[in-house]
Prior knowledge:
CATH architecture: Up-down Bundle
Helix content: 40-55%
Order of helices and strands: EEHHHHH
Mean pLDDT: 91
Number of domains: 1
Structural class: mainly alpha
Strand order of the largest sheet: 1-2
Amino acid sequence: MVILSKIYTKTxxxxxxxxxxxERVLKTDLLIEAIGAVDEANSAIGMATDEYNDILERVQSDxxxxxxxxxxxxTITISEKRIIHLENIIDDYNEYLEPLRSxxxxxxxxxxxxxxxxxxxxxxxxxxxINPNIAKYLNRLSDLLFVMAxxxxxxxxxxxxxxxx
Length: 165
C-alpha cells in the first residue's frame, strides 16, 4: 500500500525525479515521458468510466501496475494474462458490431482515451529492455477502447468519406 502524507517534496524542483528503485533521472528522460503518457492515458480513461466502470476501473488499476513496472517496481509485472483478458473483452464487444466499411470519425471520451493510449504505446517503444507485455497491453487497450467507442456510438457512428477536393 502507498501512503502519501505530504504531497510536495521539492525534490523535483531541479528537473529530476525518482524511479521506484530510487534512481534519480531527468524528468525529460524517455522513461519518465512514457510513465507520464501512461498516467495521462489513465486520466483520460477516468473521464469515460461512467458507463463502463467494471471494465475501465480494472484497466485503470492495470495502468498503475504498468507505470509501476516501468518505474522499476520489482514486484509488479504486466502478464500475458492481462492482455488475453483485454482480447476477450474486445471479442465480446465486437460480436455486436457490424464490420467496418470505412474509417470512423472519432467522437467522445473513449476515442480520446484511445489516442492517448496510442501515444503512450509509442513512448514505451522508445525504451530499451522493458517487458514487451507493457507495449502489447497498451496496443490491446487502444483496440479495446476503439471497439467500446464503436459499441457506445452504435447507430450514430459517423464514417469518413474522402472529400476529393
